[in-house]
Design a protein that fits this description.
Four Helix Bundle (Hemerythrin (Met), subunit A), 784 residues, mainly alpha, 4 domains
Length: 784
């Protein structure tokens, strides 16, 4: 069955460093202020692919805009300006051809797309005319309007070009969304058929189709998740896809149990709960990709203490710049809300007496510090001071210090309680007792253990709630909510599955069904340990959000069927042997992260690939500890192959960068590239090699991690070298292109044989448009 990993790959590319910072936040960007341009209403850029496709075009247009007012114009400068203008026009012409092809294949977008293509073509031609200056002497000759004589004209043309190209890209992006919706609808139709089947033969046939549809949906949503700009939406997508992955196996066993025991009420309840949860998860995916809720209301976001404290401190520290930024009533209200939420801790039965007293003491101190702050603040206002008084500065510092201490106490309370409960329940004694009692048909014992499981569920739900308050980031907050929901739903499902087994103790399928739900519970409890570690790492500043990358099998290679593969897991002895190697891998990821923090542009392509490699290596390190989302050796091998692929992408980005360097600077970087490419290729071969037997599998695991470590060793050398060369390059040229070089290519023939939406999207998706915006000759800016 298709896996739904919680990967979140695909970082954004870099922008230019010539005073243009776009398109991280298009409406308020530097380019928007320079050109007076904003994306058209309703055309919000939500995906990185759209955003990054625009970066090269923005860079070239910015080059022209920045040089229209320069007084010194050499012949080389004039020739380069003309070449840039012609290159932009040629790129736009090819881009328009692809856009028109998309319009012809999608009638609902045809009119809007055609208009945008016409505007883009006109703007491109205008820019080419205005930059036709190489043969002029002087370039300001009155006989021809140029970039130098019509300075507002080139800005106007650039504004129109960016708006129209953005519109074409966003419209094309709708095709991807449409494809996800279509895939979801197919899954829903097949689910409805599965829900109504009455024979095993019919079920097997329909479930096979359902499996293939879920594989397709897994890949479409995985690609979209990686492409989302919003980290919060990305985390929500990961949570929804995780639900679908687990529920797919639950749906199989619950349906089979219901078919085997059609008159069993608990089996019907169990099956209905699975179908209901899958439908909710499918609906959540569509809400994320369409960015709207069915009823049109805004989603009420849960309020966490860490968010409240962060906003409160920002307002308090903002008084240094503006004494009238808000009213004292607003500040008091913000603190009141924070302290109300601390009652979740003080009212909890699991909070120790000492922690409870300390939280109450700090809450009381926070109220006192706020009054001291208000007093100093009001005095400064009455004195009509423009700068901050010493008394107010001291009050601000003390207020923030108090909130930091409160946050630390709450974090300590939540994590210690969570760690104790996770450890206490890690033996899964209640689940084991339920399985035994159910197999014996002992109704009274099952009822007793079900009550204990319900109590355990309430405990775990409460620690999820407390952890959410101190999670530290929105994605981790969403992960806490997902864990809370999983325990809430899975607990009753385990009980209904156990009741079914109790009524049919000799039923193998009823036993298998209970095992599946118990495994889901155990898996979530294991994930809680990882979540707890990540929350602590974020709080202590040891590590930011660490994105986990998992590779998916491509559609068509693995058909879903009723028998699932069970890849090998390492035993304790093998896990111990990998421990030292894992620690070495962890140290290298820390060094890589440290090196990446030194880069001025976190969105640089080299940094993004480095982050991806570090993230994947971190999940491989967690595997050596028996933690994380890589549960089996097959998971590790897929991760290793994805790691090697990402390494080759980094090598390609480094090679593009080396082409922009002076001859004297190239050899060192090329030497590291020559080391990295074969290392990645060797890891790819190892990861893809089939092995059988326990010893051979362990050897392959050990080799994969060793080769991954070798690649990180090279990365640790490459990052500081590239950073140094980048700074030198910037200093020498005053400008650096973060996008890859553009090369002149003819329009790629799009396959017309494909039918249906999938064929259309493969031929004319965002990637096709990327080629024809980016595939031009980039002119080195040092010529200017």
């Amino acid at each position: 069955m298709a896996a739904f990993p919680g990967g979140s790959g695909g970082g954004g590319g870099g922008g230019s460093s010539s005073g243009v910072s776009w398109p991280r936040s298009p409406p308020g960007s530097a380019l928007g202020s320079a050109l007076g341009w904003e994306p058209l209403p309703g055309l919000q850029i939500r995906s990185r692919s759209v955003e990054q496709t625009l970066v090269p075009l923005v860079a070239q247009i910015t080059t022209l805009i920045n040089h229209k007012d320069k007084l010194r114009r050499s012949d080389k400068t004039l020739r380069t300006i003309q070449q840039v203008g012609q290159a932009v026009n040629l790129a736009v012409a090819r881009f328009v051809l692809v856009g028109e092809a998309i319009a012809n294949e999608n009638q609902e977008l045809k009119e809007e797309m055609k208009i945008a293509c016409i505007e883009a073509k006109q703007a491109g031609e205008t820019i080419a005319q205005l930059t036709d200056v190489a043969a002029l002497d002087p370039p300001e000759a009155d006989s021809q309007i140029t970039i130098f004589t019509d300075k507002t004209g080139v800005v106007k043309a650039a504004r129109l070009l960016l708006s129209s190209v953005t519109k074409v890209l966003v419209l094309a992006d709708r095709i991807v969304i449409k494809q996800i919706i279509t895939s979801r609808n197919k899954v829903l139709v097949t689910m409805e058929q599965l829900e109504k089947v009455s024979s095993f033969q019919e079920f097997v046939q329909i479930f096979s189709q359902f499996g293939n549809e879920m594989v397709e949906f897994a890949h479409l949503t995985g690609d979209r998740q990686n492409d989302l700009k919003d980290e919060k939406k990305k985390a929500k997508m990961a949570a929804a896809r995780a639900v679908l992955e687990k529920c797919t196996m639950m749906l199989l066993t619950a349906s089979k149990t219901c078919l085997r025991h059609p008159d069993c009420e608990s089996a019907r309840v169990n099956k209905a709960a699975v179908f209901h949860r899958m439908r909710l998860a499918l609906e959540q995916v569509i809400e994320i990709v369409t960015d709207c809720r069915p009823s049109g209301e805004n989603e009420p976001g849960p309020v966490s203490i860490y968010t409240g404290i962060k906003e409160f401190k920002n307002k308090v520290e903002g008084l240094r710049d503006n004494l009238f930024i808000l009213s004292k009533e607003n500040l008091r209200a913000m603190l009141r809300v924070i302290l109300e939420h601390t009652e979740d801790f003080t009212d909890s039965a699991y909070t120790s007496h000492e922690n409870r007293e300390h939280i109450l003491e700090l809450s009381k101190q926070a109220k006192m510090e706020l009054e001291q702050l208000v007093s100093a603040w009001m005095y400064a206002q009455n004195q009509k001071r423009k700068d901050v008084t010493d008394e107010l500065e001291v009050a601000i510092l003390k207020m923030c210090q108090c909130m930091n201490e409160l946050h630390r106490e709450l974090h300590s309370t939540a994590t210690s309680v969570a760690a104790d409960l996770i450890k206490y329940h890690s033996d899964h004694l209640i689940l084991k007792a339920l399985k035994i009692s159910g197999a014996e048909g002992n109704i009274e014992a099952v009822a007793e253990h079900s009550c204990k499981l319900s109590e355990q569920k309430e405990q775990l739900v409460e620690i999820c709630h407390l952890l959410r308050h101190v999670s530290g980031t929105e994605p981790l907050e969403i992960t806490c909510l997902h864990a809370e929901d999983t325990f809430l739903v899975t607990g009753p499902q385990i009980i209904s599955a156990a009741e079914t087994l109790t009524l049919h103790p000799s039923s193998k399928i009823a036993k298998e069904n209970l095992d599946v739900f118990c495994e889901a519970w155990e898996s979530q409890l294991s994930d809680m340990s990882l979540l707890l570690r990540e929350i602590s790492d974020v709080f202590e500043g040891r590590r930011g959000e660490k994105r986990v990358y998992l590779s998916l099998p491509r559609p068509g290679k693995h058909n879903a069927n009723l028998k699932t593969l069970k890849p090998a897991r390492l035993d304790n002895e093998e896990q111990t042997k990998l421990g030292i190697l894992g620690l070495e891998l962890h140290k290298l990821t820390t060094r890589v992260d440290s090196e990446m923090e030194k880069w001025e542009d976190p969105e640089n392509e080299i940094v993004r690939h480095g982050q991806s490699l570090s993230s994947m290596a971190y999940s491989m390190y967690l595997f050596t500890r028996g933690e994380g989302l890589l549960k089996t050796t097959q998971d590790l091998f897929q991760q290793a192959e994805a790691f090697a692929t990402e390494g080759l992408k980094l090598a390609s980005a480094l090679l593009s960068f080396s082409n922009q360097l002076e001859d004297d600077d190239k050899p060192l970087l090329l030497r590291e590239i020559d080391r990295m490419v074969p290392a990645c290729q060797q890891l790819q071969v190892t990861a893809r090699t089939l092995v059988q037997g326990k010893t051979a599998t362990f050897t392959k695991v050990d080799t994969c991690i060793h080769k991954g470590k070798n690649i990180l060793d090279i990365l640790v050398q490459v990052l500081p070298l590239s950073c140094k060369l980048l700074r030198k390059h910037k200093a020498g040229n005053g400008y650096f292109r973060a996008h890859p070089p553009w090369k002149e290519n003819g329009l790629h023939a799009a396959p017309r044989e494909s039918s249906g939406l999938a064929g259309i999207t493969d031929s004319f998706g965002i990637k096709s448009l990327e080629q024809h915006v980016a595939n031009l000759t980039v002119l080195e800016n040092k010529h200017f």
